[in-house]
Structure formats: C-alpha cells, structure tokens
Write the structure tokens for this entry.
Amino acid sequence: MTSIKINDFVVRFANVNGTGSASANALFTKAVFRMGVPVTPKNIFPSNIQGLPTWYEVRVSEKGYLGRREGVDLMVAVNPQSMKKDYADVRSGGYFVYDNTKPLRPGYDREDIKHLGIPMTALCNAEYTDARQRQLFKNVVYIGALATLFDIEFAVLEGLIGDQFKGKEKLIEPNIKALNIGVNYVKDNFEFPLPLRVERRDLLGDKILYGGNSACALGAIYAGATVAAWYPITPSTSVVDAFAKYASKYRVDPETGKNNYAIVQAEDELAAIGMVMGASWNGARAFTATSGPGVSLMNEFLGLGYFAEVPTVLIDVQRTGPSTGMPTRTQQSDILLAAYASHGDTKHPLLFPSTPKECFEMTVDAFDLTERLQTPVIVMTDLDLGMNDHVTDPIVWDDSRVYDRGKFLTSEELDQIGTDKLMSLASDMTARSNGNSKDEMAALINELDGQANSDHSTTAPLEQFKGKYGRYLDIDNDGIPYRTIPGTHATHGAFVTRGSSRDEYAVYTEDGDAYRRNVDRLSRKWDTAKELVPRPEFYQDADRSNNGVIFFGTSTDSALEALELLDADGIDLDAMRPRAFPFGKAFRDFVDSHERIFVIEQNRDAQFRSLMMIELGTDASKLVSVLNYDGMPITADNIHRQVKSYFQKQ
Amino acid sequence: MTYLRSTFRHPALPKNELGYSVDYYEGSLSTLCAGCGHDSINAAIVEACWQMNIEPHKVAKLSGIGCSSKSPAYFLSNSHGFNSVHGRMPSVATGANLANRDLIYFGVSGDGDTASIGMGQAVHVVRRNLNMVYLVMNNGCYGLTKGQDSATADVGSKSKSGSVNLFEAIDLASLAIELGATFVAQSFSGDKEQLVPLLKAAMHHKGFALLNVISPCVTFNNNPGSTKSYDYVREHIEATSTVDFVPISREILASYEAGSVKDLTMHDGTTIHLHKLEKNWDPLDRFSAINAMQRAKQKGEILTGLLYLDENSQDLHELINTTYRPLNKLGEAELCPGSEALAKLNASLR
C-alpha cells in the first residue's frame, strides 16, 4: 500500500519548446502557491526557439525547502523526442502521465511506476478546429488533469485564469473549458486523487512568487536609474525587458508623456558598458545587465572604471561557461572573472544576492555603493535566480531612504573652495607643482594628508582643498576622492577623466611616485569598501563547531536543507553566507575561527575558494570544496552526499 | 611640442559677449609634435567656441586613444573631458548625452580610433543620430605607435619607410552619409578659414555632425608619395563651397552672386551661407553629395566643406522620447515610485 505524500513531491513536465507550455506550467506552480504551499519551479530549457526538448520541474514542499530536489515523482511526458529518458527518470513508485492518443511503443513497461494515459491530442482535436488552439490547449488539458489528480482546488485555477486574462475576457471561457476536459477525463477514467496530494495550508504568509531578473530591474527603477544600455544575451535579457516594462509604468511623465528614462540597445557589450560609464560620469544613475560572455567583453571598460573611478552598475546573470558553454544552464562561474576583471591591478566589489528580494535590495545598494566608492560594482546573480520564479519575501521600500550619491561637489562648494582663505597657499602650491619639483609636490601632498589625518571627522572638509579642487586628493583619508559633474561650475572643478596615470589634480603624469600614490589610494578605498558592502549572514548565534560551511547565491536554499540532513547524521556545521566581496572583518573572523570550512559553489574550479585564498591567504588544506557544475541548480542531496563522504573518508 | 608657454596675454585682447578673451578657451600645453595638424584644429576649436560665446563648462569633451584623442586636454580647460578607451568614445558620448541633453558634446577621434578599432561604435553612433560633434583628426597613420598605415590610408600611398599601402581606404564621409548622418563635412587642418565656420555649424546642428578633417602627421606621414602629406593635400583639395556661419542674433546678409549662394537653416534658426563652388551638387541631397564625393575620388581630389545636411534631423532624445529636462537633474521624488506602488506589485505576485 502506497503511503500518501502530502505537499512533498516533484513533478516534471517534458515539453517541446515553442508550443506554449511555459504559461500552462506556470499556472500549475501558481496554483500550488495559492493553495498556501511552498513551491519551487525550475525551467530547464534549450538555447533554441522552437522544436527542442524543454523541461519544467516543480518541487512542492510542506517543509518549505526551496532548492531543487533529485528524483521525479510524476512526469508529464508530452515530448516524444525525450520520452525514453523521461520515462527512465521517474522514481520507483512514481507516475508517468502521457498522451495515449497513440499507444506507447514497446519498452515502456516498467512495473515499478504507474502509467496514466490521457488522450490529450484526441481530446483537443475533438474540441478545437484551429491547429494552434489544438496545440496550446493540450497544455491546459493536462493542467486540469493534474489538478484533479493532486486534489488542487478547481476554484484556484479558475481564479488564476481570470487574473491572467484580465482585459482579454473572451479567452477565459475556452481556457476553463480546456481545464475541464482534463478534469473530466481523470474523473471518468482514474482513481483520484493520487497518493501525491496538495493540501491547502497557510505556510506562505505574505510571500510572493517572483523572479530575480524582474527584481533587479525593479531595484534599478527604485534606485533612480535613468539610463540602461544593454546587448541581448541569455539569461540577462529579461532584466532589461522588465526594466522597460516597469519604466513605462512608473517613469512616464503624466503631463508631457515624455520618458524619465532612456534605454539603448547597444551594438555590443563593449558599447553597453561604455554608455553606462558615460552616463554615470555625467551624473545620471545608469546600469547594464549581461552574462559571462558580455563580462568578458566589458573587461576593458571595467579596468577604466576602476582606474578612472567612474561609477558603474553591472548585473551579471551568470550562465554555464566557458565560451558559449551552455547558454541556458546555470552556474556561478564568473566569480574570478568579475572580481579581477581587466588588465593591471584591478578588483571590483561584487554582491551576491540569493533571493529575488535580495536581487531588488542589492541592485538598489549597488547604485549607492558605486557612487559612494566611485568604482564599478557587479551584482552576481545567475540563471537559476534570474529566470525562475522563487517564493520570496515581499519587496519593501522605506520611503525615508535617501539615495547615497557619494562625494561630489556642488557649484556652491566649488565656489567656497575657490574663495577659501587658503587660496594663496594653493596658488603657491600650484606654482610649485607646475615647476615639476617632485619633492615639493610630495611634501605638499604629505601636508594635505597630514591635515586629513588630524581632522578627518569634519563634515565640511572644503578648506582642506586649500583653495584648489583636486579630483584625486584623499581629503577624508578613506581613499575616496571628490568628483564633480560636468557642467557644474563655470571656472572651477573641470578636469579630464582618463585611464592614464595622473596626479592628485588630474594632470597627466608618468611620474612613478604619483602613479604609486594613486594606486595606493585605490587600495585604501578598497579597504573602505570592505566595511561598506553588505555583511555576511550567519545561521547560528555563536560558533558551535570546528567545522564551518560557506555558501552564497543560489546555493543557499539547498545548503540550508543539506544542513538539516547533515544534522540528522550528527554532523554539525556553522554556516556563513557571504553577501559581498571584498571580504570584511566578520568574514575573516569566521574563517579564522574554524578549523575546516566547506565551500559550496557552482563551478568546476572552486573559484570562490580561490578568492578566499588570494584575498585572505587562507590555507588551502583548510578549505574543502563542495562543487556542482553540470548546469543544473545544486541540490541538497548532492551537498549532503559530498560533505558526508568527506567525513566518512576521514 | 614646447615646454614653455608664456602666461602673458595682451590686455587688450578682444572679449566676446560673455566677457571672455580667446585665451579663456585654451587648454593645457600640447604635447603633440611641432607642426602637427591636430594643434591647428585645436586652435580652430578654441576660436570657434570663443566666437560663438560658448560657456566652456557647458561643453563635454570626449575622446578615445591616440594622438588625436589627447587633444581634448589642449582646448577648453574649463570643460570636463573624458579620455576613454581606444575606439570607444562614441559609447561614452552616447551615455553622457543621454544623462544630460543640455551640454554640447564634442568628440575627438582619429582614423585608427574611428575607422579600425572603433568602427563598430562609430557606425552605430551615426545611426542613432546622437546630438554631438564627431571630429576625426584624420592623418592616415598611427602616430603614437610610430607610423603604421591606418584604414583611411589610400591605396598606393607611400609611408615614411617606403612601403606602399595595398588596401582600400575607408572613406569616412561617404560612409557617414550612407549610414544616415545628418551633417557631414570635410576639411583640412591647414584651412582655418573653412574649419572655424564648419565647427560652429556642427555645434549648432541638432544631431550627429561628422567633421572629417585631414590633419597631416608631420612626423610619420608627411613624406613624398603619401596622400595625407601637407603638400599632397594642399594640391588636391577641392572646396565645394565657402562657408559662413551666421548666428541668429546678428544676421548679416553677405552679397553673393545670385544663384551661387545657398542658405541652410539650422533647427535653432541660425543660418549657414554656402557659397557654392562645386557644380551638380546639392548639400541637401544625399545622393548628389555621394556622387560629388565619388567623382572627386576618381580625380584623386579631396572634397571639403559642408557636404551634406539634413535640415529635419531628429536626434536620439527625440527618437526615444526622453523628457526635456536632463535625466541627471531628475530627483528621487520623480524617479522612485515609493512604497505604495510596491503594495500593488506584491499583491499581483501572489
């Protein structure tokens, strides 16, 4: 006798892409969500528009596990191309739902699973005459059938269809009809419901079902981004699509009908990020979104942004590399590329969101950080987070939040600098610096630094400019200089931004000391960044174990589930989820206070582990890699297996 | 280059309407070779901006990499400049312009920066009709790396080392017209009289204005056999017209012979008087401009002057319907939808 599984199973839909299955499958996910039960859908799709196999996998979990789970309890197999493998993938004791308009070929004779044949094609052909409708409604028919098999309330589906076709009411009735075809077929032919069931719960509270790419786009809207430049690339394209959608809703001036934003589809990723830097340099908030191949092309500009200190927000929706790799599969494999993008000594702050809510928050943070730090900031999301819907906390906005535009000088402040009493000293200094005396220049810089050190708590440090604005003076001793926006002042504050070396007054120089002072200041800025970026999240109040585990981004849900599995095995791990690079004190302390640390990440080369070794000098033998790099989101079972086998080998 | 520049300026230097004398429009000391064509162009830019009463801080100077791209440091020291990466000035200019439509965008590039490494961006900035002056200081060679041929070097042109260029030259002005440029002019660094009014007109044009200026490299491409040497260019230059740019505020009608003067009206009401020298050419007709250039090319001549103008040019901002206020001036209140909008959005995601 099979035991009844309530709210704990995995369904996989095996479809042909381009047949309209995506919206029907999403309907199923949403129905489970509206039954108040945690649900996790994953799109497993090809780099193709029409005709190739595509899968949609839905995990239903009463316990609230939101990672992927291995094993399929019920397969909806409507793609003959992949049917053999789909058939084999069904767990023993599971169900195989298929279109039996034509009989199954020989070989589909497993005795450990149940076969549920529904003549979807025949039913649709009898009901609809239009070929496209026959195709589309086949998907809706099997959703109706599943609802009855899983005991999902029909009213929930009706409600969803009503919401989906608001404004196109004449489409409601045929969709409901298609659902009913499936419902009735199940009722007439099978025992229902199955021992796999969805039971109404109230486990979701005010949670929402949202995708990371949309959340990043919404974050850009809330952060005040006015310029978006991009080049189409999976899986980041929908970031800008969503930005365009939100912008047309929230950013059109109601009086003039004019856009309070600009979106440019660039000729390539080089141009996309160049436009972002031009706009940011000119005082607008701007961003671009891309994936690994785009980041490769953007290396040149990222180096410029670092050295010339131009704010830039880049959203990297990572996919499986290298090269074109698997464009529609997920990975966390741009870590090192992004951290050190470009030639010369460069490094860039990275943010690692793990939920759509964090995609929103970190995109907003990225705009504040990039202007505060005057350096490119990269939001490291991935295909799994970006292109799948996730159960996540609702998006919130604090109306008292004020954008941090960082350090820039207004026209009045430039006036104040210009008329400062210390003007005479400054002109003296300028005269001396023009005289090319290295020693004197260095002495003056020391003098300025000294003053900064003695009094860097001042809120109005303008007098420290000593009468002359210097773009790269470290007035506050935090490595962050003051910028000016073009067009601010008629006579003060203009300078040439360049990727070549320059002195504190933005004057081109190849003097080695001036170059070193500049890059050392950038290092000070990097130290400042360590405590400005989001802090790690810890999952225990105090350390309990000598063993720690680190995971980030989309490994989080599965890692948290794996911790419970390991706990049941008597393996206790302290957990930390870094949310940003560079690593601050809290991160270092965690690493220092554990003898052994598992580092879970989704790439072959353990890139995050390398980053820790490079940046913290952590002993390699202390860091144990838990890796997943087949392009599919990591599962708890996988993590559990790898960690457990490590201890078994010890 | 020179290491010394006198800070003395004649106290009676004439002032423009803003009360500035021409030296206010100068930049820092040039580090280009003595006699470089680029410095003559820089001087023409200074002169044009002074004459036009431009407030320097309302200009943004942008460039890529190369000798030409160093130039923005050598004019308008009260303007912000952005010396970006090789061949990428157009994208930086595009972003800057999107952020603030109220400034004048002055892009300086070279033939390597535009016709080779930057060709991808150059053609697209033309297509988008970005409101900017795109000035190519075209010397047919790579100066900073010591004289390699560039993609604008003519077939058969001889380099300083004696090698002969085998490959077809890219004709930037023809290409720009082909791509839909709305203002295309060509000139010679040694012809300040033509260059200054062309610069003024280009700055007044609302849309993309290409100024392809032959600017000989005195050090690496000024030898006999080169088609970009001072001597060669002087001998083969064929002006299409003489040009006067007339600001709207003080129009003075010059007396040209009937039939040979063409007045072109700019979007802001200013006027260009073209005193036509070339027959069978209408600067408002794309085809006739291309034909005229092809004919000149056949004869080995370089046509100069304003070659083509689209009086109905619509720039990128108009095409994508951006607000009249500069985007960088919009405040948080206008940009952030606030918490209320989120309640609705969250509800739609359940």
Observations:
- Confidence is low (pLDDT under 50) at residues 421-429, 431-436, 449-459 of chain A.
- DSSP finds 21 helices and 23 strands in chain A.
